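Figure S4 source data
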Amino acid sequence: MGIRNKNRKVSSVYILLFAIGISLFTYLDFADLAIPYDDAYSVFMVKSSYSDIVKITAKDVHPPLYYWGLKAFSSIFGDTIFSLRLFSALGIFATFLLGYFPIRKQFGDRIALMFISLLIMFPVTQYLATDIRMYSWTMFFVLACAICGYKVYLEGCFRNWGLFLITGLCAAYLHNYGLLSVVGIYIFLLVFLVQKKKEWRRLVYCGIVFSALYIPWLLQLIWQFSDVANEYWIKPLTLNDLFLHIYYFYSPKEVWRPFTDFTKIQMMIGLIIVMGIQLLITLKVLRSGIKNRDEKTYLAIISFLVFLFPILIAALISILYVPILASRYMTCSFGLFVLNLAFVFDKACEYPIYRRLTNVFFVLLIFVGGVRVYSGVKYYNETESLYHKIRLFTTNDGEKQILVASDSSYSVMPRLQLIVPDQYFCILKTAVDNDFSPFVFQKIDSIPLCDFILVHHEPKKISADFRKYQHQLSVRYIFSDSIQALDSYLYKLKLR
């Protein structure tokens, strides 16, 4: 009877966590009205055909599987911004299920509950659930591949090998960091199979099959790698990048947003306290766990090393060849980081003082996550006010407006197409005929001889380009009105 009551209580906790997580991330998907460039890229990508998606993303840096999945999802549930964000949230919900099924079955309820709780609490999960990108699903498949790899290590049945191969392929076809993570999983698994004198040849055969099935994109990846060596948006690594990568998962705001609700110093002091407590608990667990040869301590170490593998490889490539390390790419193996912490905190609960410290860490993490929810929703509301301002500015008694931008300012146009869709969007061509796929603009050779709205992207590097057009236009047009919204300026021009 007592066991049955205990099981009911544990089941109630799972249900409560699922309800909190699903409600929170669905609400954020609904509240998030901001449309950054990457989200706009994904929105327009699903408007392309499946074959065109491959062609377009082959010129980009990401594999096609996410866009195929997003397109299939949107064909059933619609292509609204909320619907597309919900597809990302489903990747988080699927990771909850990894906690409830294989992690709970393999490691027990406490680790599973800690895993799901941490996944909900970590501020970065809010980004994964709302961003219309492939990171949440890559995280799911990388973690699933690692769990299947562990099952292969314990019992190498055909079903486990099959799931190990499939989840690894999905991770690799979702993101290049997914590929690096899977390579790390294969390497670690091979080492442990050889060390324990288990059947390691099957892993080699599995790797051969994996390579054969990945070759279609591997050839494209090699071409992309040589292409980004010439020009890529990621900048060389700096000391600030190192600090950003350390606190990125804990940040109470999107890293690119301004400090409005708190200062940078306040944020850093708070995060140092949170991360300091985590470090203190981890050191205690490692010291006692290694001394006592505790299995879960070793699993925590392995989980962390596999999480770290793609980041270290990317950092090495960034230093020696071309910068490819971006903080958000770390989220591809974030599930392993969370699992590592679940192992650590589970072990810490065996020591009264560190159990209390673990509770303090959870409370502080809830607070930091709550701050991110508050600042995020506040930002979404401010962004919607800006969008409303743009809609009013482009209103023209029911007639369509012509919005014109030079090709150097093109990146703001896709967002405007989603904010004020019923307008004409034109890009002034230069000597180089750029391909703006998946975006669809009307390319024009010269300024239209009629009233129009000039769109200028704010960054300083294109200000000289804008001033050139501004000087040419002042001869024939009058600048009648203007607004600043997003990171751009919009000018109404009327013929003299």
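Figure S5 source data
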Amino acid sequence: MSSKRPQYPPEFRSQIVELAKAGRTHAELAREFGCHATSIGTWVRQSQIDETGDTSSDAPLSTAERQELTALRRELRQVKQERDILAKA
């Protein structure tokens, strides 16, 4: 059975990112705050993407773009369901 990954609040993530940018190692922060060093690395990279605003086609999505994409996919799924219901009527 798979376990769920812990969800860390944005304030916690930003605090960890600031400490990492100040020179603390990911492993050190992971031990101190009880999260995985890989997660910290992901948060730091995402923070750099968000700060630079790189919009090239091969750049990873910023947090805002990722949220927008999720919302658009949810809306598309709902519209398709509504369309299918109307088609059956």
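The chain has a mean pLDDT of 88. The helical segments are 10-21, 26-33, 37-52, 63-88.
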